[in-house]
Amino acid sequence: MKVVIVGGSDAGVSAALRIRELQPNFEVLIITKDSYPNFSVCGLPYLHSGEIGDFRSLFHRTPQDLEAIGIKLKLDTEVLAIDRTNKVLATSSAEHIPYDTLILGTGVLPRRLAVLDDLHSPSVFYLHSPGDGEALESFIRTKQPRSALVIGAGYIGVEMAEAFATRAIKTCLIEQNNQIFPSAEAEFATRIQDALTLKGVSIHTSCGVEKASQTVDNKVRVTLTNEESLEVDLVVIAIGVQPNSKLAKATGIELSAQGAIVVDSYMRTSDHSILAAGDAVHTFHRILERFTYLPLGSTAHKQGAIAGEVASLHLTHQFKGSLGTQVLKVFENVFATTGLKRGQSRQEGYDPLFIEIEADDHKAYYPGANKIYLSILGDKITGRLLGVQMYGKVATAVQKRIDVAAVALYSRMTVAEMVDLDLSYNPPLGSPWDPLQVAAAEWIRRSQVQRESSI
Amino acid sequence: MKVVIVGGSDAGVSAALRIRELQPNFEVLIITKDSYPNFSVCGLPYLHSGEIGDFRSLFHRTPQDLEAIGIKLKLDTEVLAIDRTNKVLATSSAEHIPYDTLILGTGVLPRRLAVLDDLHSPSVFYLHSPGDGEALESFIRTKQPRSALVIGAGYIGVEMAEAFATRAIKTCLIEQNNQIFPSAEAEFATRIQDALTLKGVSIHTSCGVEKASQTVDNKVRVTLTNEESLEVDLVVIAIGVQPNSKLAKATGIELSAQGAIVVDSYMRTSDHSILAAGDAVHTFHRILERFTYLPLGSTAHKQGAIAGEVASLHLTHQFKGSLGTQVLKVFENVFATTGLKRGQSRQEGYDPLFIEIEADDHKAYYPGANKIYLSILGDKITGRLLGVQMYGKVATAVQKRIDVAAVALYSRMTVAEMVDLDLSYNPPLGSPWDPLQVAAAEWIRRSQVQRESSI
Prior knowledge:
Two copies of one chain form a homodimer.
Chain A: E1 2-6, H1 10-22, E2 27-31, H2 44-48, H3 63-68, E3 71-74, E4 79-83, E5 88-91, E6 96-98, E7 101-104, E8 108-110, H4 114-117, E9 124-126, H5 130-143, E10 147-151, H6 155-166, E11 170-174, H7 186-198, E12 202-204, E13 209-214, E14 220-224, E15 229-232, E16 234-237, E17 241-243, H8 246-250, E18 274-276, E19 283-285, E20 290-292, H9 297-311, E21 326-330, E22 333-339, H10 342-347, E23 352-360, E24 371-379, E25 385-393, H11 398-410, H12 415-420, H13 435-454
Parallel strand pairs in A: 1-2, 1-7, 2-3, 7-18, 9-16, 10-11, 10-16, 11-12
Antiparallel strand pairs in A: 4-5, 5-6, 8-17, 13-14, 14-15, 19-20, 21-22, 22-25, 23-24, 24-25
Helix pairs in contact in A: 1-9
C-alpha cells in the first residue's frame, strides 16, 4: 500500500507518523511545496521576537529525522492535479506519482490585501510558510527596521506586535473590527489591548488601510481609514486565512460553504480513497454539534493522527470535535478561551448568561498571589456550560486552568456541576474553591436572581 | 429556625455562610473549642517557614467578619453532650443550647505518640489547631531552635520539614512506612524525598521512635528504631489523624468502621436533624463508588456548603464524591495526584496498567522549558482512567494540570478519551499534544502490546 500525503505541516506529518507506527510496511510519501517539512510555524513570532536564536530550532523534526523513520519526502514540489480515476498525482516536478490512499493536508492560504500587494514591496510580508518566516527574519537582521505596521489583530497579528515590541521595533497594530483578537469577549480584548499598549504598541481598531505607497528607500507609506498617516520600515499582513482547497475542488471533492474540504469523523472526503485533515478541512464543533471552519494547530495534529489511522486501515478512532480552545501569550500575560462567546451562543438559540469574576490564583496570605479574571457563559434554560475565558499572568497558570474548563465542556457539564469537581488545593498553589468554582457559584446565584425577577 | 454548628473550621463555617445566604432569617450559631474560628490550618506551615509574617493573616475571616454577616459565635467552648430527644446541647460553659438543626463539623484529632507524650515536654508539638500553631510559632521565635525532628511524612510532616529547612533549622524527618508521602506512588515519593534531601532535610523511612528522653535544657533525645540517636531542640508529631466523632458516638449516631460519622449524600447523619461534614465524616469516593475515610480541606468546604443548604431546607444538591485530588509543594517543586494508586486499584479488583512519561511543559525551543513527570493508571479490561500523578516545578503548572485529569476522572473517562480532549496550545505555554495526552497515547500503546502478548 502506498500512502501519499500532500502537505508537510502538522496534519500531514501527524498522519505519516501514525502510519509508520501502525503499518510499518506501508510506503509513506510526503510531498510539500515548502523546503521545510514539520516546521513549527506557530513558533515564528518567537524567532522574530529574538527569543529563539536559530530558525532551525523550529523544526519539530528535521527532514533527516523523518527519513530515518521511513517517511519519504519530496520537498519544493507542488501537486498540480489529482487524477482520481487512475489514482495518480501530477506534480510541478513533472513526475506522475501513484497512490493507493491520498491524504490532503494542504492547510491555508493567507487572505491578501491588494492595496499593499500592488506595491510589490520587499518590505511587505505575509507570515504563512516557513520560507516567509525565514525571509522576514533575514530582513530584520539585515535591514534593522525601526518601525513596523501589523495589519490584523488575530493570533498572528497580536503575536507579531508583541515580537516587534520585544525587539524594540516601534509598532502600530491595526484591526478592521471594533476590537482586537476576535476570539476574546470584549472585556478580555480590552485587557489584551492594554497589555500591548503598556509595552508601547500603538493600536487602532475599526481601522483599515486607505492608501499605500513606497519610498525610494523601500519604506512603506500608509494612510489609514482613520486618516492617520505613517511611514514604516516593515509591514506584516495577518488579516486571516482561507482553506487551501483548490486541489480538492479541481478534482471534484466536496467543499463546504466556506470552501473547506468536507470530511466525516474519520477524516474521509467524499472520495473515500482521499482523506483530508488540518486547516484545509471543516471541523466538527463539539458544542455547536455541526461542522464549522476553525483552523487550529492542536486540531490539525489530532485530525492528522486520525487520518493516519484510517489510512492504516484502523477505523477505530473518530474525531470527537473541537471546542475552539485557544491560548495567547501577551508578554507576561495570558489570555485563554474555550467554547462559545456570548454573541455566538445567542445566534445558536441559547439564552446565555455571561458573568465575570476576579479571584486570586492562590490564597492571598501566601506571598505572590496574582489576580485571575475569569468569565463563565452558560445557558439559562438548561444550565449547560457554554464557554469560559480567562486572563492572568503566566504564573497564574490560566494556560492550563482553561483546560479544566475544556474537559468540563467536552463532557457537556452544567455550570452547577463545576462546583462539585474535586480540584486540588494547597494555600501556596490554589484555593479551596478554585476560581472556576467561585465563578460557577456566582453564575448559579445570578441565574437564579434573573429567573426570580422574570417570574 | 435555629441552626447550631459545632466546629468553626472549614466545614462549619462553609455551612454557616451558605445558611446566611439562603435563609437570612435563620439563626446561626457556631460553637468552637478554639479561640480562632475560620482559620487556615493548612496555612500554618507557611507561617512556620517564615514566609507569612503574621499569624492573623491566616484568618479566612475574622470573628468580627463572621459576626458582621449575622453568624453568632461561641468561642473557647466545648460541646459536651447532645440530647437528641430534647434537641439541646450541654456545653463546657454550663449553658444548655437548644437547636432545631445541628451540624457537626468536629474535624479530626491527631494520632498521639505515647513515647513522646510521656515526656510532657514543652519542646514537643502536634500541629492540629490554630492554638497549636500559635504555640509553635511563639516557641520558634523565642527559643530559636537550631534542630528539629519531624515524625511522620504525610502532608503536615513534609510541609513542616520544608518549613523548618526554609527557616534554616536542621531537620530530620522520619516515617514508619517504607516511603514518604503515602498518597504518592513510589516513583513520585522518591522525587519528593530527593527535593527535601537536596535542601538538607535528613530522611529515614521504615523508621520509628524507640526511646525518648528530655535534657535539663528541654532538648529532646531520641533513639530511632534504626538505632540512630539524635538530640533536637524541637519535635513535631504528624503521624496521622482520626475522625473526632466522640460527641456523635456518645449520642448514638451511626459511625463507620473507621470511626467516622456516617452521612448520606445530603450530609445527613442517622438522625436527620443532625448533619455532619468535613474531616469527621466518611466520604463518598467517586471511583471506588463507596464511602471511605479521606479527610481533605477542599472536601470539607464542599460538604460544609451542602450541609448548609440542607439545613436551609434546600435539598437540591448532593455531594458528588471525592477523587482524593491533592497537591503538595516541596520548595519550588510540586507533586499532585488524583484518583487511585496502583496497589489500591488492584485491591479493588481492577487490572491496572501504570505508565510514566517525561515531557516538557512547553515546546523545548522556547526558552525556559521544564520537565514534567506524569503517570497514568488505567484499567486494562475497560480502558477506564483510574488515576494520574504529576511532578514538576511550580512553573510547569502541574498544580492545575492535575485538575484537568480530575475532571476527566470525575466524568468517568477512558484513557483513550483523553487523547481526544481539545486542550490549549501555544509554543511558549504548551505543546500540541499535552503531556496528559502523550501519556494517554503511551498507555494505549502499552496496553495493546500487553494484550497482544497475552493472547
